[in-house]
């Protein structure tokens, strides 16, 4: 994009951020000519910039905007009428079904892309205009429907929880413009109670402020909901008030806990076990939380009170009757035992809680997003179980529980693909024991598996014949890692450094700092010298960094392992891909230069394909305007339910994509590869690809190795996971915007190495070292004997003459040029 276009994009973003609430849709509709793929990328970059500055509300709004604009191939923004039609449709469905979730939720699920701030603003504007013209009785009917819709969306499990809560709050605030205390006291109090719930569960905004708003709303409700007039509803709001006081940040902590105990105890005066067993148990759970945190009184007595309250709750909240509440109460009890260093009791309690959580997971039939949300909700129970196992010296169990929390959806789908009867999927185990992990390794291969805790990070070193070695950091190391990551991402997405020159120049020093923060040399010293191959299993945002390129003493990590350094998302996934046998490497399917900018000037033919394709007996290449989505997914434009994969790709042993790539942080499933007629998205790959013969997918494009590091579910969501799920055993992808010339040379050398050996990881590492260490003269000598065309040999020689006068210089020595690519998967 040119400078003028970039200025226009940034001006539009500023206009949207500064405009009055509700005006955004009109502004977007008035600037359709700017709403293209580049604008989406600028919005995502701006969101990350604001996030790094600590302005999370602004960042979230921009992420929502990127979601609203969907994928970069989308034609100019959909008319605002589509949002209005959906708004009317959802309110109509709410009215006709009396707020029935079975009617409303499928409609919401089909329109999660519209559940954002734009929808909330449109709801407010529509309601304001409609209510202003409505008769009093009609106005009351309208806000009744809006209130029921708000109740439903506040509990809706899909989409963005942050967005859903903002929409719910908007709805309740609208209702309160009609439901005044004087005219509708009962409805006013009920809405105040619901508004308190929404503020208590709100994600955006300051947590302390949200809690104060919740307390104010509950307190208002209690002005009408007295014990004498509305005893059950009074008890409900008292219980809510007790829960929120337990979470209160402002004020004296001791006083807040006493208020929580008083409110929960008041609720129990009405919520007796005989009359309201479920509500009684829920309040006992809240009371247990309050006693767990109590500051006044004897600590031992408070702990006993908390245990008694949790135990009482579990008498009613049984696994068979209330599995979700049963797991929540067990988690609270286990957490109490852990905090009190009663680790055996904590272990036994967490075992039961995890059994319940995993049983709940098996019952989920509504899709992967629901499972991911469930994993996010319960991730902390696995983390705490890992901590307890380590405290009890159950080291191998700690690793097993780490694995049980990682990439569960992907592993289940991979396992399902190998079943002859996919309907048996619930019977597939999503766990791996330590012995099975060791069986993945030969006697010269080691795994370093990282795990990030709340107060430290740990590296688990696993080999085939020894107990795991566990290295752990202190809290200062974790804080340094978080700061390093924030700075790295902030500078990478800095809109003022659009070509990433500053980030590029600082990369080598930054990687050195990362190695020091991770104490890499100290960790590597724990690995015996005979181990010559290393597999990294990163965790969360560590997936974004080239760990193989971290400096170690006078060299880099890949120089220390002669048989290669590769990556896997988890041991379970490594186990799945190792089960696949892909011995053939004869056929190539490639996408070449699908967009105009890739075949202009000397880059029209980088020579890479001419060299690479000679290594295969069967070659199929889609070039330029033939490299389109409809040529890969046959029937995609006619009937999405009857799409078939290009047969040549289906049979290929190697798939090579030389094109632009992108990662959509706002909607990872919409990440993809840019083709001539649109984008091949991650969702497309997951839905339609089946690569039963594929040993290697090479994504020679920018940012193709990015994953959704914002997720707390430990899922590995990105293009590599899509191609692994599709059937490939290995995926080579990139961690940043790469240099075209360096990448072409790297790929040519990589495939030359693959002619000599079957070790894909070693071939890639060898090519990376070659690119890093070769001098200008070395490249010129290599060109003479290479299989590149004479035209491109001349172009490269001219490149070196123009840019690197010193024949002994190493033009691609910086990690920026050679370290971006990594191999995820089997390695062979």
Which structural traits does this protein have?
828 residues, 5-stranded mixed β-sheet, alpha/beta, 56% helix, globular, Nucleotidyltransferase, domain 5, 18 strands
Compute the number of strand runs: 18
CATH topology of the domain at 584-774 and 812-825: Rossmann fold
**CATH structural class of the domain at 584-774 and 812-825:** Alpha Beta
Strand order of the largest sheet: 9-8-12-16-17-18
Q: Determine Rg (CA atoms, Å).
A: 29 Å
Poorly predicted parts: 71-77, 420-429, 599-605
> Overall pLDDT, averaged?
88
* Biggest beta-sheet profile: 6 strands, mixed
- Class by alpha and beta content: alpha/beta
Relative strand content: 5-15%
Number of helical stretches of at least 4 residues: 35
Q: Quick one: overall form?
A: globular
Helix content: 55-70%
Entry summary:
The protein contains 35 helices and 18 strands. A hairpin with a 6-residue loop joins strand 2 (457-462) and strand 3.
Account of the 3D structure:
- By secondary structure, the protein is α/β, with parallel strands linked by helices.
- Among the domains are: 3-68, no CATH class; 80-175; 440-567, Nucleotidyltransferase, domain 5; 584-774 and 812-825, Rossmann fold.
- Helices cover 56% and strands 9% of the residues.
- It is built from 35 helices and 18 strands.
- Strands 9-8-12-16-17-18 form a 6-stranded mixed β-sheet, sandwiched between helices.
- β8 (587-592), α26 and β9 (618-623) form a beta-alpha-beta unit.
- α5 runs antiparallel to α6 (101-109), α7 packs parallel to α9 (161-178) and α15 (299-316) runs antiparallel to α16 (323-339).
- The radius of gyration is 29 Å and the shape is globular.
- It starts with a helix and ends with a strand.
- Mean pLDDT is 88; it is low at 71-77, 420-429 and 599-605.
């Amino acid at each position: 994009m040119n400078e003028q276009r970039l200025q226009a994009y940034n001006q539009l973003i500023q206009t949207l951020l500064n405009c009055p609430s509700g005006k955004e849709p009109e502004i977007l509709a008035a600037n359709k000519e700017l709403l293209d793929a580049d604008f989406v990328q600028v919005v995502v970059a701006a969101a990350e910039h604001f996030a790094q500055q600590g302005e999370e509300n602004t960042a979230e709004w921009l992420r929502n905007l990127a979601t609203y604009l969907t994928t970069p191939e989308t034609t100019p923004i959909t008319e605002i009428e589509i949002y209005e039609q959906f708004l009317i449709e959802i309110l109509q469905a709410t009215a006709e079904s009396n707020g029935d979730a079975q009617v409303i939720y499928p409609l919401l699920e089909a329109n999660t892309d519209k559940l954002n701030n734009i929808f909330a603003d449109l709801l407010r504007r529509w309601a304001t205009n409609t209510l202003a013209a409505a008769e009093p009785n009609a106005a009351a009917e309208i806000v009744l429907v809006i209130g029921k819709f708000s109740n439903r969306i506040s509990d809706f499990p899909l989409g963005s929880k942050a967005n859903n809560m903002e929409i719910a709050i908007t709805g309740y605030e609208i209702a309160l413009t009609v439901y005044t205390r004087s005219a509708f006291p009962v409805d006013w109090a009920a809405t105040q109670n619901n508004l308190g719930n929404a503020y208590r569960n709100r994600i955006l905004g300051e947590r302390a402020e949200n809690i104060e708003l919740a307390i104010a709303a509950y307190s208002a409700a209690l002005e009408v909901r007295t014990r004498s007039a509305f005893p059950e509803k009074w008890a409900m709001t008292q219980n809510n008030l007790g829960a929120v006081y337990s979470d209160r940040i402002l004020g004296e902590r001791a006083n807040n806990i006493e208020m929580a105990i008083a409110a929960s105890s008041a609720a129990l005066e009405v919520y007796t076990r005989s009359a309201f067993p479920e509500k009684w148990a829920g309040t006992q759970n809240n009371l247990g939380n309050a006693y767990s945190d109590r500051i006044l009184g004897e600590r031992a007595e408070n702990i006993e009170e908390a245990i008694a309250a949790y135990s009482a709750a579990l008498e009613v909240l049984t696994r068979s009757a209330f599995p979700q509440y049963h797991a929540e109460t067990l988690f609270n009890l286990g957490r109490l035992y852990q905090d009190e260093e009663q680790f055996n009791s904590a272990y036994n309690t967490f075992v039961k809680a995890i059994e319940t959580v995993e049983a709940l997971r098996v019952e989920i039939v509504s899709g992967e997003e629901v499972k991911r949300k469930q994993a996010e909700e319960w991730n902390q129970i696995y983390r705490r179980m890992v901590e307890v196992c380590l405290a009890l010296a159950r080291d191998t169990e700690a690793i097993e529980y780490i694995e049980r929390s990682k990439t569960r959806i992907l592993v289940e789908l991979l396992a399902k693909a190998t079943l002859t009867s996919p309907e048996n999927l619930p019977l597939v185990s999503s766990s791996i024991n330590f012995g099975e992990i060791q069986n993945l390794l030969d006697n010269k291969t080691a795994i370093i598996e990282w795990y990030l805790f709340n107060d430290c990070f740990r590296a688990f070193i696993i080999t085939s014949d020894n107990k795991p070695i566990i290295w752990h950091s202190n809290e200062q190391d974790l804080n340094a890692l978080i700061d390093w990551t924030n700075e790295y991402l902030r500078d990478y997405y800095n809109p003022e450094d659009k070509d990433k020159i500053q980030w590029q120049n600082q990369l080598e020093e930054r990687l050195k700092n990362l190695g020091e923060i991770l104490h890499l040399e100290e960790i590597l010293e724990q690995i015996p010298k005979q181990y010559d191959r290393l597999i990294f299993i990163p965790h969360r945002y560590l997936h974004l960094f080239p760990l193989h390129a971290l400096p170690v003493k006078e060299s880099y990590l890949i120089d220390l392992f002669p048989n290669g350094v590769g990556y896997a998302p988890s041991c379970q996934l490594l186990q799945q891909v190792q089960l696949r046998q892909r011995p053939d490497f004869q056929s190539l399917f490639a996408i070449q230069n699908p967009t105009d900018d890739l075949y202009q000037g000397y880059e029209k033919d980088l020579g890479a394909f001419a060299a690479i394709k000679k290594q295969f007996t069967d070659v199929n290449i889609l070039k330029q305007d033939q490299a389109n989505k409809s040529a890969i997914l046959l029937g995609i434009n006619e009937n999405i339910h009857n799409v078939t994969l290009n047969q040549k790709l289906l049979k290929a042993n190697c798939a090579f994509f030389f094109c632009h790539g992108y990662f959509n942080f706002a909607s990872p499933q919409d990440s993809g590869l840019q083709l001539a007629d649109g984008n091949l998205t991650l969702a497309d790959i997951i839905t339609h690809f089946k690569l039963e013969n594929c040993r290697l997918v090479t994504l020679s494009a920018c940012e193709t190795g990015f994953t959704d590091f914002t997720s707390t579910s430990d899922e590995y969501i990105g293009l590599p996971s899509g191609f692994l799920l599709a059937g490939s055993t290995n995926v080579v992808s990139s961690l940043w915007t790469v240099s075209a010339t360096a990448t072409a040379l790297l790929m040519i050398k990589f495939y030359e190495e693959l002619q000599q050996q079957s070790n894909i990881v070693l071939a890639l590492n060898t090519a990376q070292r070659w690119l890093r260490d070769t001098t200008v003269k070395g490249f010129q000598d290599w060109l003479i004997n290479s299989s590149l065309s004479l035209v491109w040999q001349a172009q490269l020689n001219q490149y070196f003459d123009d840019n690197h006068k010193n024949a002994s210089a190493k033009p691609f020595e910086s990690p920026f040029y050679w370290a971006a690519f990594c191999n995820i998967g089997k390695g062979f």
